[in-house]
């Protein structure tokens, strides 16, 4: 998760543009049109769309080579231009991440849309489960929203794994404001993904 990724600078610029776009009034046509032209030009520099992402291609290469585990995901390395960067603290046994949602992720006025809070829980929960299960995927995730989660402030997500049963691990996660106040919590179950004797990848 902490690996350097050369795509992080461009991803940060895309996130900054998305936040500014969300804050502009729709009537601000001149600046919107000029920005659109520049963004389209930037997209052309990156080449045509690819049917398979580099993450998917690297995952398939690992599977073919018999290597367990996913390669670093753009969400975890800060290389995703459509989701805020996770700042990971890997000093303990559990996965802990700090994330700040900008205006592009607004739900009710001034607060983070609940779907994005759930996505952050999913990422942190799966990262924690993977430490015990190896390659793991989400089997279920339930989020309880306790109070509005504000935009523009650092949020700390942490997750703890319960008793592992076979290939399944229960995870409890929390979202906290600076100072420790809870805004949401989640419970999930994550399943290890293993290679069977025919070389196929399967999960519970």
Which descriptors apply to this entry?
204 residues; 7 strands; Thiol Ester Dehydrase, Chain A; alpha+beta; disordered C terminus; seven-stranded antiparallel beta sheet
Let me know the number of strands: 7
CATH class: Alpha Beta
Structure classification: alpha+beta
How can the largest sheet be summarized?
Answer: 7 strands, antiparallel
How many discrete domains? 1
Which percent band covers the strand fraction?
A: 25-35%
CATH-derived architecture: Roll
CATH superfamily: Hotdog Thioesterase
Could you name the ranges where pLDDT drops below 50 across 5 or more consecutive residues? 195-204
Helix content: 25-40%
* Number of DSSP helical runs: 5
Give the termini distance in whole angstroms: 25 Å
Mean pLDDT: 87
Helices and strands, in order, run as HHHHEEHEEEEE
Shape: flat
The name of the CATH topology is Thiol Ester Dehydrase, Chain A
What does it look like?
The protein has about 200 residues and is α+β, with helices and mostly antiparallel strands. The chain has a single domain (about 10-204), classed as Thiol Ester Dehydrase, Chain A, CATH 3.10.129.10. Helix content is about 35%, strand content about 25%. It contains five helices and seven strands. It has helices at about 10-25, 30-45, 55-65, 75, 115-135, and strands at about 85-90, 95-100, 135-145, 155-160, 170-175, 180-195, 200-204. Strands 1, 2, 3, 4, 5, 6 and 7 form a seven-stranded antiparallel sheet that branches.
